Q: What sequence folds into this?
């Protein structure tokens, strides 16, 4: 990284690996000024900002011959104009994906995408990045409705469903 002196404006090359996250004191070799240098800010390569969400999403994966290769249920962790991050219990097979969800009026929302990356988490689930295919009005409608659904269900459809299932199971079971 290139570091300018705060006093004399001379520039120096500094290995960014030597700079601590909390900053590192350096000394200018020309004017002897001592100042703190911070690591460079990470650059976010994403084109679009992301909105946090936790909606249930059904996915179907198809190969080039349009044969279904996998299907399952995932949780949308975040969504943007360009894609969605799904947490799934197993990896999604590469290929064309059809994502579907329902809104608060039980209308089916469907969208196409392609798998960009899949990473296993320490807990054993997978984070799967899906890029939307042909970003158009349908994509914007899907995103808008998904975010509205997330807000409508008390900020989390997954939690709402889990709470309902848990409350029905929490009644004590009589022992004979």
A:
């Amino acid at each position: 990284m290139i570091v300018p002196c705060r006093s004399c404006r001379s520039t120096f090359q500094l290995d960014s690996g030597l700079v601590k996250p909390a900053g590192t004191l350096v000394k200018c070799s020309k004017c002897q000024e001592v100042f703190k240098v911070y690591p460079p800010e990470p650059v976010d390569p994403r084109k679009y900002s992301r909105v946090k969400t936790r909606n249930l999403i059904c996915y179907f994966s198809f190969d080039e011959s349009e044969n279904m290769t996998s299907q399952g249920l995932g949780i949308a962790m975040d969504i943007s104009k360009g894609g969605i991050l799904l947490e799934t219990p197993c990896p999604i097979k590469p290929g064309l994906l059809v994502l579907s969800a329902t809104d608060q009026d039980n209308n089916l929302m469907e969208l196409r995408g392609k798998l960009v990356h899949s990473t296993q988490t320490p807990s054993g689930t997978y984070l799967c990045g899906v890029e939307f295919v042909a970003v158009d009005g349908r994509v914007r409608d899907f995103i808008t409705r998904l975010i509205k659904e997330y807000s409508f269900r008390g900020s989390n459809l997954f939690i709402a469903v889990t709470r309902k299932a848990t409350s029905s199971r929490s009644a004590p079971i009589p022992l004979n």
